[in-house]
Amino acid sequence: MSEVENFIYEYEEQQREVMLYFHDLLTLELNLVAKIKYKIPFYYGRSWICYLNPTKDGKVEFAFVRGNELSNIQGLLDSKGRKQVYSIQFKKVDEIPLQQTNELIQEAILLDRMRVYKSKRTS
């Protein structure tokens, strides 16, 4: 098992199922690379695209690093007061609106392919 899969299997059934759903979709179907960064799974194309963050209330936050650049015509993304990262939270796999979520993922991948992320942080 990979480092990311080991991470996912540490969680309770519902969080694990949600994270496995996205992990398999992102890595097996969409060929993104999974890495643990900041102690959670991040998914990369040319640069980082999204991440999974299990929350203390039993949900999984599915976040887009460049969420502020996505159209969000589906109305699913929430900034939670953040300037750049936008996310959706799910407690169970059957709560995931598949078509709308897949549209967001495809848009994020297209954005990554067209314009590689450049950090705005200054050291």
Summarize the structure.
By secondary structure, the chain is of the alpha+beta class. The chain has helices at 3-8, 13-29, 98-114, and strands spanning 33-37, 40-44, 48-54, 60-64, 86-90. The protein has one domain (3-114): Aspartate Aminotransferase, domain 1, CATH 3.90.1150.200.
Would you mind describing this structure in some detail?
The structure is a single chain. With 123 residues, the protein is of the alpha+beta class. It has one domain (3-114): Alpha-Beta Complex (Aspartate Aminotransferase, domain 1), CATH 3.90.1150.200. It has 3 helices and 5 strands, in the order H-H-E-E-E-E-E-H. It has helices at residues 3-8, 13-29, 98-114; strands at 33-37, 40-44, 48-54, 60-64, 86-90. It has a 5-stranded antiparallel sheet. Strand 1 (33-37) and strand 2 (40-44) form a beta hairpin. The longest helix is centred in the first third of the chain and has 17 residues, at 13-29. The radius of gyration is 14 Å and the shape is globular. The model has no long low-confidence stretch (mean pLDDT 93).
Shape: globular
- Total number of β-strand segments? 5
Identify the strand order in the major beta sheet: 1-2-3-4-5
Rg calc: 14 Å
Strand content: 15-25%
The average pLDDT is 93
CATH class: Alpha Beta
Task: Tell me which CATH architecture applies here.
Answer: Alpha-Beta Complex
Structural class: alpha+beta
**Low-confidence runs of at least 5 consecutive residues:** none
Classify the helix fraction into a percent range.
25-40%
The name of the CATH topology is Aspartate Aminotransferase, domain 1
SS field, number of helical segments: 3
